Structures are given as C-alpha cells and as structure tokens.
Amino acid sequence: MNCLSWNCRGLGNPETVRELHDLVKMEGPALVFLCETKIEGRRVGDLTTRLGFEGCYPVNSAGLSGGLALFWSKDVDVTLNNFSDQHIDVMVKNIGGDNKVWRFTGFYAKARRSEHTERRNLLRWLKAQSDAPWLCGGDFNEITDNSEYFGAHDRPEWQMDGFRQCLDDCELQDLGYQGVPFTWDNMQHGDSNVKVRLDRFLMNPAMMSWKSASVVKHVLSPKSDHCMLTVILKRVAEGTEGHRRRFIYEEAWQKDETYDNTVLQGWRRGAGLQGLHGIEEALSTMETHLTVWRKKKFGNIRRKIKKVRKEYEEERSNSLFRGPTKKEKDLGHQLSDLLHKEEIIARQRSGADWLKAGDRNTGFFQARATTRKSRNRIRSLQAADGSVCETKEDIHAEVQQFYTGLYTAQEHTDVEAVLHHVPHQITEPMNERLLRPFKEEEVKAVVFSMGPSKAPGCDGFHAGFYQKHWELVGPDVTAAALGFLNGGQMPDTVNNTIIVLIPKVRNPQNITV
Q1: Secondary structure string (H, E, C) spanning 232-289
Q2: What's the first-to-final CA gap in the chain, in angstroms?
Q3: Are 229 and 35 in contact (CB under 8 A)?
Q4: Interatomic CA distance for residues 116 and 110, integer angstroms
C-alpha cells in the first residue's frame, strides 16, 4: 500500500493537476494528502473522479493561502476524526486482506515562526487522541538537524531542539527517505539558494512494529518548489521473503531449568586440542542441540503467553468466591516466567544494554529495536558507475564488490620501498614485550571485556555464551586461541565474517560517503 503527500502550491493550475494525475497513475496510492491547494474545497472535491479516487475530505483555503485535501481510493474505508486549517486526521480501514484499522494524519505547518509552539502543541494533542498505529506525513516547516538545511545561515539549535522534543513527546519516528536530501528549494542562484528538508513521514511505535520495512521516496516536481513524498507501507516479512533466519543464541534460554544440562551434553570436550577448527565443529554441534531443544521448550513465546494468560484468566474467574487454587498459582508463575523470558529476548534484540532485565517494559524494547532497525536499513545505494541499486540482490552485489576490492592486495606493490621511508618508533624493549607469548589470563580478559549480547558472529554465539559457560568451554577456547596466537594457523572458515553496514550519516547514498 502506498500513500502520497505533497505541498502542491496551488491546484488551480491545470499543469499541477496534470502532474499529480500522472504520479497517481504511476504510484497507485491509497491515500493522497495535499496542502496549499489555494482553492475552495468544492473545487478540490471536483477532482476526485478525475484523479480516480473514491472520496475526498477538503479544507477550504483562505483566499490564495492554505487549503488542504485528503483523497482515498476504493482500497480503504476512511472515517474523519477531526481537522483544522493545519491538519486532517482520519481512521483508515484496509478493505480485503487483513482489514487492519490504523490512523493517518496529514499535517501542514504554516511558515510563520510565531506559530511554532501552537503547531507543536497541536501535534501533541493529536497524539493524545488515540494509541492506534499512526502514520503522520506532510509539510512540517521544521528540521531536526542542520544536515537537513543548505544555505548561508544554519538554523538555531533551540529551534530544532523544540521540534525534536515534540517528536519525542509524540513518540514519532522519522522514516528517512530515498532520493534528493532536501524537499524544498527556493530556486534562487548562488549564495541566495536555500534548500531544506521540510516534508517527511513519521510513525509511532505501533505503526513501526507493523510496517517497519516502509520506504519513503522524494520525487522532484517541476510545478512546485516542494518534492512529492511517497511512502510504500511494508512489513519486514514483505521485504525479506525467502530469507532463512540464521541461528542466534538467546540469553532468555538460560532461565529454563533444562538449559544447563543441554549445554553440558552438547559441548564436545577437548575440542580446543584440534585448534580453531575443533572449536568451530564444537559450536556447530552445540547449535544443533540448542535448536532442537529450543523448538521443544520455547516454541513461540508470544503464542505461549497468550495461551497461558487465557488459561489463567479462566481459572481465576472460576475461583472468585474462594481462595486461589494450586492450578491458578502454577499458571500465575508460568505467566510471570514467560513474560520475563520475553523481556530478556526483547532487550537483547533492542541492544539497550544500559537497562537491565527487570523493568518489564517489553513494549519499549520492541519499539527501540524496530526503530533502530528502520534507521539502519539501507534502502538504496549508488554504484560506482553512477547507477542506483534498489533491490536487495543489487545492494549485496555492490557491497561485496566494494569490500573485495578494498581488502584485495594490490599487485606489484613493493612493501619494502614504502617501509624504508617510515621512521622506527618501536624500541627494542617494546618489541620484546610485543613478541612475548600470549597467556591464558589474557584470553579470558578479552572474552569478559565484550558486551554479553553484542554482535554475534557467523555461528550466532555472542560473548554472553562463553561468559556464562566459561568453566565448561573456557579451557578449549583458550587452548585453541593460544594455539593460533602463538604461531598456529587460522582455518579459512573461522575467518569468515558478516558485513553489516551501519550508517554513520542519515540516509547514505553510497558506501564511501
């Protein structure tokens, strides 16, 4: 499903209507929000059939200023909640498929700086009206960072901080974008040119968890100084069809009473005597044992919670006029234990290691994980030849090609000729310390200095597994590590890694910038 938002700067121009009609035919949006229509609502409504829509909610302009419109297709049912000269707020029901009900707000903030506080409070008020999955899009006339501004003078920090605080209060997360980085251009030349990212789409945690693979595109328009924005609403599953979920070790498993015995039986003692290759085989065997055990003992945590909660409520309703039964107490303990396990899994997935298990704010952890995943998702990359990679396969190929070239040794390179010009900085005593053999305690210190749930490797085991079971696996891991560090060989398969691109800038356009 697609939605479109555009500050069209007047629907009275036939060329603007023609351009809108062309984009609607191309994108097939279920919702279209327009601001600055600059014509009466009646005239906007007359465009409904021409544009191929089922219905329209127009808001009259004040002469040649303002004016809003929301069009919708036959794919959705739309119910108006409220509106003003700065917003249209509706409930949307998908027709067919999942029949999901969600909320859309088209927002238009007037450019007058004196109204900053008023429009931010309007956004906060809208947030308080409903907890439904919420998509909010439009022209907000504000930015969150000076990277969203190009011009001679930066925006003041206090002004951006007010908008950032408003978005935090409303729990709204920016979806990012594909395309040009700015959505408004004053079209002037030289030092007078100003470009700003004024338009955006936002989601609350409920919407983000449902449609976290959504993609926003900036589409340039010759008839407006604002870009058109389209958002393709997608679930993660829709963007990762056919992808096999790899094994990941979960901290929550440690809470089960049969877990320790499973690990004890699954670890092949003496594996370290065969070097790193022996550890690799031992971890593969452990993965098989834990995978079989997990399916039997854990299954789907959310489904189990739902089942146990239903049984608990039924049992409790049967004992309203007498004391709690043994079954009720047992079910209560089961439910509490399952909730604790779910919390640990959500915390590990979110990467929020600054909060310890115990707060049972699973919704917070899940929202954080979803937000982080959406922010880090790379939706397109510019290839070396200037073309744009948008499919998963093309992006993977471009990344692999870049890093293969980066880490491949150059031919005909005379290393000695280069080193001849590098001054010596290492003294003989320093060299002796660097060349001394590695020790057991150094291996353990490195393992325990890692974050327990950080960045598991190709095998899916992170540092928390080794730290938890150091008495069992430590001797083998230490023997294998020292065997390599003190002059041994590293098998090629052990040196395999997973390339994870973590954007260091917002909406990266290529690998190097």
Answers
A1: ECCCHHHHCCCCCCCCCCCHHHHHCCCHHHHHHHHCCCCHHHHHHHHHHHHHHHHHHH
A2: 31
A3: no
A4: 9
Contacts 24+ apart (CB under 8 A), 97-101: 100/133, 100/210, 101/132
- In whole numbers, what is the pLDDT of the chain averaged over residues? 83
Instruction: Write out the two tokens for 441.
Output: 């305690």
| Radius of gyration, alpha carbons of the chain | 29
Query: Could you read off the pLDDT of 35-91 as tens digits, one per residue?
Result: 999 999 999 999 999 899 999 999 999 888 899 999 999 999 999 999 999 999 999
Which pair of tokens denotes residue 195? 């470009």
Closest alpha carbon to 74 in 26, 27, 30, 24: 30
CB atoms within 10 A of CB 229: 25
Distance CA 68, CA 89 (A): 12
Contact by Cβ (8 Å): 214, 200: no
Q: Could you read off the pLDDT of 92-137 as tens digits, one per residue?
A: 999 876 778 999 999 999 877 778 889 899 999 999 999 999 999 9
CA dihedral angle for residue 167, residue 171, residue 176, residue 177, rounded to 10 degrees: -90
Angstrom CA distances, 128 to 163, 171, 308, 387, stand at 17, 11, 32, 44
Beta bridge partners of 107: 87, 138
**What confidence score (pLDDT) does residue 349 get?**
56
The pLDDT of residue 355: 45
Strands 55-59, 388-389: pairing kind: unpaired
Domains of the chain plus CATH, in order, are: 2-239 (3.60.10.10)
Largest CA distance in the chain: 91
Q: What is the pLDDT of residues 314-352, one digit of tens each?
A: 777 776 556 678 888 888 887 777 777 666 666 655 554
Collapsing DSSP states into helix, strand and coil, what is residue 340? helix
In this prediction, residue 507 carries a pLDDT of: 67
- Quote the CA–CA distance of 504 and 376 in Å, as a whole number: 9
Query: Could you say which residues of the chain have pLDDT below 50?
Result: 238-242, 352-361, 364-365
